[in-house]
Amino acid sequence: MFEKIIQNKDEWLRLTPSTALYDRTLVWLYLSLLVFGFVMVTSASIPVGLRLRNDAFHYALRDGVYIISSIAVVFFCVQIPIKKWEKYNGVLFGVALLLLFLVLAVGSNINGAKRWISLGILNFQPAELAKLSIICYFASFYVRKFDEIRTGFASAWRPMTILALFGGFLLLQPDLGSTFVLFVLTFAMLFIVGAKLLQFIILGFLGLGLIAFFIVTSNYRLARVKTFLDPWADAYGDGFQLTNSQMAFGQGEWFGRGLGNSVQKLGYLPEANTDFVMAVIGEELGFMGILAVIILFVLLSIRAFKISSESLRSEERFKGFLSFGIGIWIFLQSFVNLGVTTGLLPTKGLTFPFISYGGSSLMIMSVAIAILLRIDFENRLEKVKYANPKDY
User: Which residues cross the membrane (predicted)?
Assistant: First the structure.
């Protein structure tokens, strides 16, 4: 008996059996994050719901609707063959670009930024769709120009032109955080394709130079950097949000104050249920709660990279590049958000994927999960066909 257990240890330890045609591990990670996010958004949003809407569960109910809608989106999008995403990547690209234009023309101005288009119950943020469209477009572009990108010296000029176009619209909102994410995504996808090292060095210096330029030429961005360097110098002014976030983490210690017992969410910490929800998690669940979230996201990113690796080994380059880009996107946005709330990075308006309150971010990220599930499904189906060719 013990010999059988040892021989089949991989199957015992595997959440997704090798005979399954979909990645159960990815599904469970996604659902775990949704449930955890709903609990924490409910806890973090009660004070702001009472203050702004006279309803303690106003934001929790809306978040519940977003979650149910996102799961429905996954069920729909997982039915779409990856060939369709490759074929119509230009349409997605055009729609994202049009929405970025429309948000500047008719978008809602919230806290001095035009980043949302009001759709009734949902304020849609086109920047989220732009990230997915860029990944999809570049995955297709790098397949078509694979040899040129790998051998040409100045082959990255076209991807950077596309990045400049999207970045220009985002900076007009203004949204430097999303622009930074798009830049890193472009950089990372060039890396997986195998572009020449000198291009990375040039692009790296160019990117850092542009970021420095946009910071220096903008008073509010410069103030954010100064606040980041020393938030306690103006703890009741520009540093108010960051200092309260750091106090939340400090008060949480190892195991937290307990679910629902955060003090900072009681009007002290702005955006407690959106951009700074991780600070509430740190205060209520402590270091161990934060560690649990990090583990879930690391596992999710690893699954995405594993799917990418399997696709590339099968010479399915579009699938490989697309899943790699999605993995980088999820990991990068969660890393940046956590870095901001802990004071390791300057403040940027980026939500924490699947955890923060926000319908557009949750739905677009759910589409990304559906794409990963579909790629993995098609990879597994190809393996079955190869193993049993007579059955097909």
Answer: 27-52, 64-82, 88-107, 119-142, 162-193, 200-220, 276-300, 321-340, 352-373
